TrEMBL record:
Role according to the record: Accessory subunit of the mitochondrial membrane respiratory chain NADH dehydrogenase (Complex I), that is believed not to be involved in catalysis. Complex I functions in the transfer of electrons from NADH to the respiratory chain. The immediate electron acceptor for the enzyme is believed to be ubiquinone.
UniProt membrane topology term: Peripheral membrane protein
Keywords annotated in UniProt: Electron transport, Membrane, Mitochondrion, Mitochondrion inner membrane, Respiratory chain, Transport
Classification via PANTHER family: NADH DEHYDROGENASE [UBIQUINONE] 1 ALPHA SUBCOMPLEX SUBUNIT 12, NADH-UBIQUINONE OXIDOREDUCTASE SUBUNIT B17.2
Gene Ontology cellular-component annotations: mitochondrial inner membrane; respiratory chain complex I
Subunit field text: Complex I is composed of 45 different subunits.
Protein name (database record): NADH dehydrogenase [ubiquinone] 1 alpha subcomplex subunit 12
Cellular compartments annotated: Mitochondrion inner membrane
Lineage: Eukaryota, Metazoa, Spiralia, Lophotrochozoa, Annelida
Species for this entry: Helobdella robusta (Californian leech)
Amino acid sequence: MSLYLEKLRHLRYAIKQHGVFGSVLQLFRTDEIKWGTLVGQDKFGNKYYQNKLYFMGRSRWVYYSDKNFGWDYDGSQVPAEWHRWLHYITDEPPTKSDLVKYDWLAEHQENVTGQKSMYYPFSTTTPKIKAWKPGAK
């Protein structure tokens, strides 16, 4: 019986943190409802959370920004400094640690392969083979 009470208590914490609609939306998007403390936010709007009551490897997570309405997200949207913290390479989040900024280091960009904004090269050579068009003489 105490296991069920604990589950209800965790559900209450999640609803308190996200609201009823936010908790249902989170359950719909990720198939789970998590609650935790907000550790920080990056410049792209992603929010990072931690709850040490969860198992190692599941206790840190990211909620991606709603720039794509929360549907089109992937791991390349996480900058390198937050990747270190998410994957337990370091214990301190980038908000608490001073990271070295090099001049030669490029700004983080997400991988857009397979999306509409992907780069398509333009061919300047004429094709050697022409496509067959049925019905053309």
